Amino acid sequence: MSESQNDWPPYEGPVAVIQPLPGIGDMVWHLPHIRAIAEHAGEPVTLLTKPRSLADQLLVDEPSVADIQWLDLNPNGRKGAHDGVSGFRRLVSKLRGGNFGTVILLHHSTLLAAAAWTAGIPDRRGYGWGRQRWFLNTGPFLPSGVKKMHQHTRATRYLQAAGIPMESAEPKITIPPKKLAEAMVRLGDTGGGYIAIGIGSSEVLRQWGPDRFAALASVLLEAGWPTLLLVGGSDDLLLATMIMNALGDRGGRVRVALGWNLADIVGVLSQAVFYVGNNTGVMNIAAATGTRTYALFGTTEPFDHASQIVPVRSPNTGEHDGMARLTVAVVLDAIRADRGRLSPQQG
After folding, report:
1. DSSP class per residue in 24-88
2. Which residues pair with 197 in a beta bridge?
3. Where are the domains of the chain?
4. How far apart are CA 157 and CA 53, in angstroms?
5. How does pLDDT run across 192-213, given as a tens digit for each residue?
6. What is the reported pLDDT for 6?
7. Residue 192 and residue 271: Cα distance in Å, rounded?
8. Collapsed DSSP state (helix, strand, coil) of residue 124
9. Fold matches, 5-162 and 177-339
10. What pTM was computed for the model?
């Protein structure tokens, strides 16, 4: 049976959106969908997500989000507060305490749908695959084939099925002028245009490594860039130190932004001439600010969600070995092909 947008009743406020994927990139991907839901609701939403998303930093100035609440499920290295039977009860209590009229799950989780049902939220919506559908009472429900698609595509398909207007599915991030100014003060004088190099990665298969990053940095400095900015997490200090040491005296032209608040990261990435680095949440932020982004995918399959991303891939041999065969020459060729040069200026 065909379903049109007129089949679905309006939201009952307050509206909660659950986006339980843990990464920063996951949150960036879902920004257009969260904004569209808030616009459709006519008011900002409450976002429930995991702490690793750093949504409290990323969305601190986001007008479509009124509040952020944490889902403490399946954290690394410990049992989460919402894991297990007692954790489920705590999760139900959290949802009940929000007095939500509508909850939208941008995910296929049965547990989260069951928690919303147990909490007595009257209007429960989501993708509706498998047993999740038992606990949802308002469509649309996506066909099973969508489950094979990327998470960003799933959310886009859901909004389309629900008849929720979305101007663009491409993530966009802007930073208020005051926050941008604060970020640039923290960065300091760069002596001109600078390149952001994303060195961090939570997965071994997505890590390019210090030797190749150092070789890339060396070529970029020789091409005339006055400053390079290494961006990553606080646990990337050793990696950054290895890269800078390999550059010798030229290491003094390298700055580091490791473990910075994401508001500052958004600011400095938005002003970089371009970004080059691992396929991470930082990479997604760079592209969402409008900065040209050379993303090192290796043998990870890229997907088409951001116009500023230029995927850089390893030769296809049928073997998924991450970054193992991605050479510095391939990365430099990708930048030259896109920009026409490596240097800051022609000539």
Report:
1. HHHHHHHHHHHHHHHHHHTS-EEEEE-GGG-HHHHTTT-TTEEEEEE---S-TTS--TTSHHHHH
2. 230, 276
3. 5-162, 177-339
4. 22
5. 999 999 999 888 889 999 999 9
6. 53
7. 11
8. strand
9. yes
10. 0.94
Q: What's the angle, vertex CA 14, arms to CA 10 and CA 18, rounded to 5?
A: 90
Reference 233, options 267, 272, 260; nearest CA is 260
From the CA atom positions of the chain, what is the Rg in Å?
A: 22
- Give 347's pLDDT tier (boundaries 50, 70, 90): very low
Q: What digits encode the pLDDT tens for the residues 4-56? A: 445 799 999 999 999 999 999 999 999 999 999 999 999 999 999 999 999 99
Class of domain 177-339 (CATH, top level)? alpha beta
CA distance linking residue 108 with residue 298, whole number of Å: 28
In whole angstroms, how far apart are CA 256 and each of 190, 229, 238?
Answer: 12, 6, 12
Task: Please state which CATH number belongs to domain 5-162.
Answer: 3.40.50.2000
> Contact at 8 Å (CB) between 342 and 335?
yes
Least Cα distance to 200 among 254, 229, 228, 239 occurs for 239
The residues near 157 (Cβ < 8 Å, ≥ 6 apart) are 142, 146, 149
Write down the residue that tokens 């952001």 correspond to.
196
Q: Tell me if 84 sits within 8 A of 63, measured CB to CB.
A: no
Query: Helices 110-118 and 84-97: crossing angle, nearest 10°?
Result: 60
For 78, the token pair is 């410990």
